Amino acid sequence: MENDPRAAVxxxxxxxxxxxxxxxxxxxNFPEGxxxxxxxxxxxxxxxxxWRHFPFTCALCNRCTAHCPAGLKAIxxxxxxxxxxxxxxxxxxxxxxxxxxDLKYNLFxxxxxxxSGDIHNVTYLSGTPDLGGEADHTAFFPGCSLYAYAPDLTxxxxxxxxxxxxxxxxxxxxxxxxFYDSGFYEEFERYRVRAQAFxxxxxxxxxxxxxxxxxxxxxxLLEGMDVEIVKLSTLLNERGMTxxxxxxxxxxxxxxxxxDGEFGELxxxxxxxxxxxxxxxxxxxxxxxxGGGMVSVYARDYCVYRRTMRLAEVDETDTDLVLSTCFSCVxxxxxxxxxxxxxxxxxxxxxxxxxxxxxxxxxxxxxxxxEYWRLTGDDNTDLTFDEA
Length: 388
Description:
Blueprint: H1 5-15, H2 37-45, H3 54-57, H4 75-85, H5 107-115, E1 125-127, E2 138-141, H6 144-149, H7 151-163, E3 169-171, H8 177-180, H9 185-201, E4 206-209, H10 212-221, E5 228-231, H11 232-238, E6 248-252, H12 262-268, E7 275-276, H13 300-315, E8 321-324, H14 327-333, E9 342-344, H15 346-350, H16 356-367, H17 370-375
Parallel strand pairs: 2-3, 2-4, 4-5, 6-7, 6-8, 8-9
Antiparallel strand pairs: 1-3
Helix pairs in contact: 1-2, 1-4
């Protein structure tokens, strides 16, 4: 896999035709006078750090390049720019520490472990290979936000997959996006080796996913392995597992589903009795929820601006409910009091409502726990999967 961020940035710059279309995007990252992405790449490659903030305030949502005439994607500039700049600025590394899922103790693993009763009891796998056939080599891969923030929903989906003899296991680790997207390239390579060894040890050859971001990142994490990736929504549709809710619903499409739209289309199919009301920007032209690109840990104002823009559009839409295939998007969008309710698309399908007040109370309690800060104070606690 390509792991030379500087070479990737140079390739982007060489391919960019400097049309300026990206620089006319209203995401907040392109105020008047901001150069196009190609020029920003060239400037940073030359050592000029006037635009050094730009990659870290980018949502990596690709909205600015959704219709790029050269076929470029913003993530292919800003993600390797982060990988190039992060080693030059040690002061940035601590900002991302609690989202470093390559380390044993992070926000997601600690929250899950603490909710289970013991903050030290980090586990990566549950289930028993007793279903027979392909199911015994299949694992549900909920993604770190879903398993940490919505354990009841995760358990309900896991139980359904077992009952349908589709997956014997549930995996509780990350696709790597939470730190790889932030520029931790070398760390991702080490994590990839460990993750692949874990899957091989347990003879897991099929993963069932629900998150578009995982769908983007996992092929890189699993490069060189013969592991099939299947969308949960495909299986739900095949087994007739639809929601009976009616009324008007809209979908906030995840940015990582922008180009092929498959996650969103499959999720929409699960709501045959509802009236689908389009948002002004959806599918290929979808807008960021405000939580994209780990920007919240670097410059929270950018996140608030993007979330406000998106929710203003939601509030102008005659809809009763907004659904999303991305649990992180739900986390971002439902934070605004008074806006249209926002849920993950699996909640109505499985009849499980996520209590966000309880989620945030749990996070607050975790962050008040001195043991949490002690455990996350050491960058050398590599996630080795030894305890699995």
